[in-house]
Design a protein that fits this description.
410 residues, five-stranded mixed beta sheet, elongated, 23% helix, 4 helices, 25 strands, six-stranded mixed beta sheet, 37% strand, alpha+beta, single chain
Length: 410
Amino acid sequence: MAFPSATSAVWSVSLLTVLFTAAVHSNIDSGDDPLQPVTSDETVSVGGTVTLTCRVAASDNSSLQWSNTAQQTLYFGEKRALRDNRIQLHHSTSTELSITIADVQLSDEGEYTCSIFTMPVRTARATVTVLGVPGKPQMSGFENAVPEGESVTLTCTSSGSKPPAKLRWYKGDQEVEGRPDVVESVPDDPTYNVSSELTLELSASDDNVLITCAVDHPSLVTGNKRTEKALRVLYAPNVHIQPETDLPREGEKFFLRCLGDGNPEPANYFWEKKDGELPPLAKPDGAVLHFSMLNKTDNGVYLCHADNGIGKSKGEYTLLVQDEADNIADPTAMSTSSGVDHAVIGGVVAVIVFIMLCLLIVLGRYLIRHKGTYLTHEAKGSDDAPDADTAIINAEGGHSGAEDKKEYFI
C-alpha cells in the first residue's frame, strides 16, 4: 500500500512542476484576458517597507499567489507559505492579493511573480529596486588654521549608496564646483563609495565661513545629508586707533586705544609719536596710550604698531588738544544748534507779526463802524428841520438850540 501512496506523491509534485513551468512561460495580454494578473514595479530604500499588489479584472474563484526572486511562495491567497516575519498580508480578495515586505535589504532586490492558478496558469512580474542609502559624508583635509594666501584641499567621502550618490560643495550659501566625483564599487557588495575634492585659496574674508559637503541621492526623500566645517584663516591685523573722546581738552585725562582686527588677536603693541618722542605724561600700556594731563604740546600724529605673529600693521591718529580757556565747542554741533535756534526765532517772529496784523485789521474795522454811527446820531435832528438853515443849526448845536432860536425870533 505504501507504493501507490509514493506514486501519488510523485504525480502531485509533477503536476505542480508543470503548473509552475506553465506559469513562468505564460505571457497572456492582460488587455484581452480579465483573468490576467496586473502588477507594478516598486522602488524602496534599504530599511523601508514595500507593498506588492496583484489584481485581476474578474474572478473565477482561483487563488492568487506571490513568489519571491528565488521562486519561493510567499503567500497563496491568505495563507503564508514562507516563514519570514518581515512579510505580511496587506489585503486579500478574490481579485486582489497585496503583501508588504518590511525592513527591506539589498538582497530583496529582484523580480517577484504573481500567479493565478487557472488553466492555463497566468502570471505577472514586478521588479523591486532597492536603493542603497548613502552614509553621512565625511570631510577631511582641514584640521588646522591656514594662513591667508595659502591653498587648502578638502576631501568629502560618502559610502553605501546605490546607485552612486552625487556630492555637492557649498561655500556659505553659494554652491561651488569641486572636482568630478570619483565612484568606486564595493567588493562583494552592490553599493558604491563616492568621493570629491575642493581646492580653495584662502583670504582673510574666508575666516569662519562654513564649507558644506552634501550628498544628493533619490533615497533621501526628506533632503540631503551634509557635513559642515568652518574655515579658520590666519591673517595680519588691520589696525585703527580709537580716542576716548572726539574733543580732547587741555588739562583733562585722555587715552588712545589701539584696535587690531586680526587672527589671532595681536599680542604685541608699540606706541610712538611721529617726528618726535612720546610726551612725558603719555604712558603706553599695551593697546592703550594714557595721557595723565593733556597739553597743547601733545598735539601731533601718534602711531600704534600691532603684531600677531602672522604679520604687522600700524594705525595713525592726529591729536588736536582744545584750549580749555576758549571752551571751544564742536563746530558741527554749534552750527546745528545755531541753525535750530534761528529757525525757532524766525517762526516766533512770524507768528507775532501775523497776530499784530490781525489785531490792526480788527481794530480798524471797529473804529470805522463806530465812527459812522456817531456821525449819524449827530445829524439826526436835521431830517425834521423845515429848511436848510435850521438843519445846519440843528446839526451843529442840537435840537434844543434850534428851539431856543425860534423862540428868540418870536
